[in-house]
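User: Hello, can you help with two protein structures?

Assistant: Certainly.
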Amino acid sequence: MRIRTEVTIERVRDDVFHRLADELDRIMPLICPLTNSVRLDSDKPLAAGTTGKISVRNGFVSRTVDFAVTRCQVPERLCLEMRYGARSAQSDYLFRDAGIGTTVTLVTDAPAVGPRWLQGWNRRALERHERQDAQRLKALLEGRLKDSANAYSRSMVRLVLIACGLAALLAIALATYQALTS
């Protein structure tokens, strides 16, 4: 599936490109609440062939995803390929001038995940996630991002509340079952 997201940032294209490329390991965890860390395998400037690892949260478990820069055309395009086991995804960041700012287009190509009946929901979740990441990138580069940890915190609070609600329903069902069978 292909997901396309655009955001216009009120900074010149060279600044936007270089800030993202030069500080990728610091910026990615700030714009994506699922990313714990990014580690580059080299201290050299980002270029095609650069590799590294991204640590991401999936529920309560962390996974390490390998990535490689497959294309780096300063200041127009930055392409990353991420691999986890046999699965892979590509993300292209396209930069173009937009009046007084820069339009960043993020195009993600990733295989459909899960059973066919669940793939529509997964696609919408990925589209929402990409839009939110783009908005956080815009806020960060325009100097308006305050605390990216809040996004992860809200997600965890929601998850804990849902788990508590399900546990309460299970307890009620168990108590009802015991009352009926005694």
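That covers the first. Now for the second protein you mentioned:
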Amino acid sequence: MLDLKEPFGCVTDETWLRLAEPSRTETQTLKRRFRAFVENHPIPVDQFQVRTGEVRHVGDSTERDFEISIFKLLGIKGWMQFRGPSDNWTARCHAALLLLGGVVYEFDFTLSPKEASISYDVDLTLVKATLTFALEGDKHCFWIGGRACYYWVKWNCKKFDQKLFCFG
């Protein structure tokens, strides 16, 4: 039987600190928020939502924000900046993995025709993800795919494959 008084007994204080520190959240606050989420959602919430911001033109580049919500618990948010002609482009990206709205891991990378995709494996004990970011096709469509998981009694995971927007 699961003990709801201390369901995170296997999670060390260092792990909670590592999860809380990037978002400047107190570890006890993060524990309390995580516990409240999983107690209110004993069955994983199979929800996937995407929001994209308006296109911004800055100099010779085009920028756009994005945010993905997975399970209402995990998310990815950031921005992509695209620059260049269609055959010699660069795309800078900043993305963050979110736990209950707080940043737990950040990515900064640049894509180009020679390296049009990049993948990351993140394992933060209670949260893990395999994420691929890519620009695809003649219209330079920004795509995120992978698998994100959180732990509560067992691993609860969701695969996703989402085109967010195109620059061309």
